[in-house]
Amino acid sequence: MLNRQGVLLVVSGPSGVGKGTVIRELLAAHPEVSRSVSCTTRAPRPGEADGDDYHFISVEEFGRLRSESGFLEWASVHGDLLYGTPREPVLRALARGEDIILEIDYQGARSVRTELGGRAVLVFIAPPSWEALHSRLVGRETEAEADVRRRLNTALAEIAHLDLFEYVVVNDDLACAMGQLEAILLGERNRLGRLDWRGLQAGLLQEAEADRL
Ligand code: ADP
Ligand code: 5GP
Asked: Average model confidence (pLDDT) for the chain?
């Protein structure tokens, strides 16, 4: 068995594009992959569970964790809301050779790239059209009108930073988008830099040497 480091899949894109939906499908097909649970200062939406969707914490608690370097990355999104990725669970998963997915904004994606370099794989999920994005955001019925407007404003900033990313997946047909994200994950597992290729090479050369005798 070829030992490897875990893949850190960083998934970004405008609010309402379907990141959560595509990731849910990927996790259902790959139970060996985990998803990082972020901390946020925003209030839970109906149906969201603390510790499952997010760790819902106060601004004070967020500040304390930030000052203790508890976040791998953090950012202020949609104006004044704070979001951050707890550092330890991510580093622990990667060290064990397990894959982990972060669903974070473009500022967070940039910080993760700075902190972890090529270990992170940056994927942007794009809508097939602006109209589709708008109607998905409204159709989700989780935000008031003002919050929808705030999220559409943030969407403009997300789209303006598309060049930060290595892959783009257009979420038009859900199954197709999930298949593309899965293909990225599977391909990245085989990247030379993530594998103990020296062990593989040495083993094969040793066997070849023995075969010659
Ligand atoms: P995000 O996590 O990016 O904010 P969600 O996963 O909550 O977005 O999806 C927003 C809405 O769009 C949801 O109502 C979801 O069911 C819907 N949706 C997701 N993907 C598609 C798709 N490919 N086609 C149509 N609707 C979609
Ligand atoms: P929502 O409030 O709709 O759940 O998420 C709003 C935005 O915050 C999304 O674009 C999401 O990707 C981003 N986000 C969620 N968690 C994090 C995080 O831990 N760090 C950063 N930088 N962004 C996050």
From this structure: 95
